[in-house]
Amino acid sequence: MTERLKPRPFTGRDMTAILVAFFAVVIAVNVLMARFAMSTFGGKVVENSYVASQNYNEWLKRADAQERLGWEDRITLDATRHVLLAVRKDGAPLGGVRASATINHPVGRTAPVALSFEPAAGGVLRSVEPLAVGRWRLDLIVRHGADEARYREDLQ
After folding, report:
1. Burial of 51 (0-12, 13-18, 19+ CB in 10 A)
2. What angle (nearest 5°) sits at the alpha carbon of residue 155, between those of residues 106 and 153?
3. Ordered mean pLDDT values, 10 residues apiece, the chain (156 residues)
4. pTM recorded for the entire structure
5. How far is Cα of residue 84 from the mean position of the Cα atoms in its chain?
6. Which CATH number fits the domain that encloses residue 142?
7. In this structure, what is the dihedral angle of CA atoms 3, 4, 10, 11, given to the nearest 10 degrees?
8. d(CA 149, CA 151)
9. CB 138 within 8 A of CB 103
10. 121 domain-assigned
11. Which of 134, 147, 152, 142 is nearest to 86 (CA)?
12. 107: domain range?
């Protein structure tokens, strides 16, 4: 006959080990998630939400005026990572356009940098400076005479 092994009794030490392991895992996951959250999003969309809310109606008026211009923008990157900007109205290139822009990292990892444009072939504007590899947010101001339009584009 084989002798049966007696099961070991469940002690307070076993329960303590289970509780300590459980809470160690929970705390480790919380610390890891908090670290990821802080490293990827700065948490600030506007400096002061109250002041921004007071400007909301003015922003809507500007957006309506920009929509009435009927401009179509096409923002791309060429092979050398220069920003190409084509502005059209009724399908034709809009001549005499001036543009200025700032670029920054979408989650605020870098300070905004000014970007200037020069005319290129076919009524396209080309940035003087190429963009570094990575994700960038382009805040663009396009002017034609007294008219102005603002665009925001994420580039990669």
Report:
1. exposed
2. 75
3. 80 97 98 87 75 89 90 88 88 84 80 87 86 87 89 86
4. 0.63
5. 19
6. 2.60.40.10
7. -10
8. 7
9. yes
10. yes
11. 142
12. 69-155
Q: Decide: 149 and 139 in contact? Cβ < 8 Å.
A: no
Residue count (the chain): 156
The residue written with tokens 């700065």 in the block is 42
Residue at token pair 């822009």: 101
> 109 — phi, psi (to 5°)?
-75, -20
Take residue 94 and report the two structure tokens written for it. 């809009």
Say if residue 33 is in the same domain as residue 103: no
Tokens representing 59? 């922003």
**Angle subtended at Cα 79 by Cα 78 and Cα 84, rounded to the nearest 5 degrees:** 10
The two three-digit tokens of residue 31, written as one number: 């610390």
For 121, the token pair is 């072939």
CB 156 within 8 A of CB 149: no
Q: Which residue has the tokens 């009927």?
A: 70
